[in-house]
Design goal:
about 110 residues
Length: about 110
């Protein structure tokens, strides 16, 4: 985890043109790391949990890739998600995962 080739994206100017209804204001033009270490990935997952907890919504849909979601869940085993997996995850104020239920997966 963390040194994979799936962690690269399109420039901010490209995706903001493709998705004009989304706010990419906080995103840097080249927002992905060249090679992200496991520690950096874990830190990014923690920051994302903190962001989710700060949101006023009670329910938020998150779409991501397996490496990030594995780090988000704190799993040591890659990958704890299937393609098109859907889960209900409850976060505590300290960013720990209180509960996790698999809603759908396709093996």
């Amino acid at each position: 985890m963390g040194d994979g080739g799936c962690d690269y994206g399109s420039r901010k100017s490209v995706i903001s043109g493709d998705f004009p209804h989304h706010d990419f204001g906080e995103l840097q033009e080249e927002w992905w790391p060249v090679r992200e270490s496991k520690a950096a990935l874990a830190k990014r997952a923690r920051r994302f949990k903190e962001y989710l907890i700060s949101r006023p919504e009670e329910h938020v849909a998150v779409v991501s890739h397996g490496r990030f979601l594995t780090a988000f869940m704190g799993s040591k085993e890659f990958c704890c998600f299937w393609n098109c997996d859907a889960r209900l995850i409850e976060l505590a104020d300290d960013c720990s995962i209180v509960d996790s239920d698999i809603l759908f997966y396709q093996s």
